[in-house]
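Hey, weird one. I pasted the Kinase isoform X1 sequence into the form twice and got a warning about non-standard characters only the second time. First submission, copied straight from the form history:
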Amino acid sequence: MHRPGRRIAWAAESPEDPFGVAAAAAAAGAGWKGSDGAPSSRSSSSTEEERAKGAPPVREAEARDEDEQPLLRGIFGVGKRSCDVVLSARRLSWSPIQPERPVGGSNVGLTNEEESVEMKDVFSVKLKRRRFAGQQKGGLLLGITVFVCLKKEGNKLKDSVINLSNLSEDHCYLWFKHLKEILNGFPNRPKSLKVFVNPNSHRKEAARIYHEQVAPLFKLADIRADVTVTEYEGHALKLLKECDLTSFHGVVCIGGDGTAHEVAHGLLLRAQMDARRDGDDIIAPVKAQVPLGIIPAGSTNILAYTVNGIQHTVTATLHIIMGHVQSVDVCTFSSPTKLLRFGFSSMFGFGSRALALAEKHRWMPSSQRKDFAVLKTLASLKPEYCELSFLPLEQDAQGEDTKQQKRLKSDSRDHWRRIQGHFLNVSIMAIPCLCSMAPRGLAPNTRLNDGSMALIVVRNTSRPEFVKHLKRYASVKNQFNFPFVEAFIVEEVKVQSRTRKERITRDNLNSIDPEETNYPWNIDGELMEWPSEVCVRVHPRLINLYGKSVGAVDNPKGSCSCL
């Protein structure tokens, strides 16, 4: 934002004080004074007391004006110019100081624009000092460094710095104190995090990503991190069941979808244990007590992509630091006798068989393994005979963008629908599942927190037609626009595979393969072996995830190389 600059007289400059701030210390040391001689700075604590008392709606405009009132005003060097800097509860602004124009002179070539940054975009402030090699403390104070979170192209975030140069310690300490008070007033910004690093994710780069890109930003934001490098599958889940989470403001995992799924499942299981709802049949689970942050470092990062709109380490880290939290729907997967898992998305059929094949070839490079599994599964494409019972959701007639969904009563059997037949794939997803290869999402007919699931069924068809359907995911065209594809918005689904029962009827028991007693499911990219009957329910806003909600991936660059 640019506004006309302020005009004041230059302070005397010297080689030791190029910005003239030392000469102006009397005026700037405690802030500029108004016409009545009183300092223009005001205590931010008094402002907070006023806000705590509450203001009626008629005073909302006054409260906004209050946030714009200057708390401090002084002289700093910004870049190579001496600037008049003003701090309010809402923003930090600065404009070049212009010398008084001599009689008959002109200000040709002098800029008079004001620059500013919103305080909500500032994530750290530090005192800047010059130190000798090996010197750990002290040093010559040079000013204040302000660290800012900037939004770049698309959904990418970037950290940037603003250096405010001033050699007066009293002046800098006063500004530093007020800046810290403002930052400490922002809600949801964590100060203590439990961090899980999966060293075996993708190319085993998770530890390097954390130490080189994530940890320095956490340190800059004064966030204490208790780091655990997991040693085996299920290690994070075991620790989450045992550790005391009350001392942490959030939990962070560095890995792929499998790591994120394990940690999310662990957080939700722990919440049920603390609420004494850790039984097998959880109809109304309680919400996870702390938010979850996901740093993408795996071969698949759909969950991180969906909550951040991009697969980018710094972006995910800055969302955590800034306290950008959103509530997200979660599914429970249950057998007739017990809870099986918490999760966000699932596939049964082609999606699970391809994953099962990929897991058997872990020795292959990630990209080659996925392509090989998809092509191999396509070559032996076969349908599953299933019976699907589902409870649909009614939609208010307000259009796709503003749809508000109304839950039907689950105990009314009249609302349940049932379909059966041979299906190539069945997807049940509570989130859109965005990625570069699916810019509209694997389930574009749902949202992160609208209390619904997308049920997408692909009936038996020819291999070429099924490949056309898969290719649609990599484009902006409607992947459901096929006669063999059906999509529903639901709140509960019961899946019962009839394959085993048919074999029992057709042949004798000895002909049944024992390994087919359980069926493969793809749950958030993790392979699960479950019984033939599974119930899936959606639970609105059951967990908080760090990130910002996005509708679709902007300017997708990925494509499905295997199709």
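That's the output from the first submission. The warning seems to come from a hidden character in my clipboard, not from the data itself. The first strand starts at residue 70 and ends at 78.
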